[in-house]
Amino acid sequence: MKKDLISINGTVQAYLLNRAGQVDGLLLSDGKQLHLPPHLSAALQEAVKPGDTIEALVEPGEKSPLGEEFRTESLTNAQTKKTVTDQPPSPPPTPGEPMHVEGSMAHWLVGHKGEPKGFILSDGTYLHVPPHVGKTLTERVKTGDQLSAQGYGTRKDGTSLEVETLELNGQPLVDLSPKGAQHHQKAADHHEQAAHHHRKAAKHSEAGVHEKVSHHAHLAHEHQLHATKHAEEAGKQHASNGGDKES
Q: Is 80 in the same domain as 106?
């Protein structure tokens, strides 16, 4: 259900880039992420620069420990009074080129429901991963960790990469080539099932139904084992590829 619009203000720390490398929002100094449709990229960059103070009318997303996204209806530069207004969409971006990037993780990229969608590196590079993959990384990747990624991207308005393989502190972490992606999806599915059974066990524990607690705890453990197995297989697939993209 759509939430009521609210007014916020803040100082722009950096532009946000989408998977195609287009500016599609702003990162504020307090960590808020404001998003707009990518066809407003040029208008947004003309109206607002990093360091400017802005006022915006936004729809809040769901809060999460990783950050919060706001869908932006309108945005005004507090100094110049330039306002971003909707314009007809521009032609779709051209496909990206093969790229390899490295850097220190500075921020999570989050969606409207607080789901992790990727990373912002300390040099302003954007790494995009599917949300189901991002969920499997939240306990493993921390601010300051060194990430090395390969995939397809662009340097149009900054560096933005669709991750295909990802290393964490020199160790294989993600392989989104066809075989690796299958294992990551299965790992994510088993993690979700494990969490479901953990919740069931906790609910039955509160009700004092101990036999069902044991049943759901056992199922949670089994799903966790399967998730670990598929995550390891994805890592082996990455290692066997030598970090290169599968042909």
A: no
pLDDT in the model for residue 245 = 39
Provide the CB-side half-sphere exposure for 207 (13 A, CA).
10
Q: Which residues of the chain have pLDDT under 50?
A: 242-247
**CATH value at residue 39:** 2.40.50.140
N- to C-terminal Cα distance for the chain? 43
3-state SS class at 175: strand
* pTM summary value: 0.53
Per-residue tokens: 86: 């909707």
- Domain boundary among the residues 17, 50, 84 is at 84
Collect all residues with Cβ–Cβ distance below 8 Å to 173 and sequence separation of at least 6: 137, 140, 141, 166, 167, 235, 238
- Boundaries of domain holding 229: 178-241
Beta strands in the chain, from DSSP E residues, in sequence order: 6-17, 23-28, 33-35, 53-60, 69-77, 83-84, 97-110, 116-121, 126-128, 146-154, 160-168, 171-175
Q: Are residues 209 and 183 in the same domain?
A: yes
Rounded to 10 degrees, the C-alpha dihedral 34/66/121/142 comes to 170
Contacts of 180 (CB under 8 A, 6+ apart): 165, 174, 234, 237, 238, 241
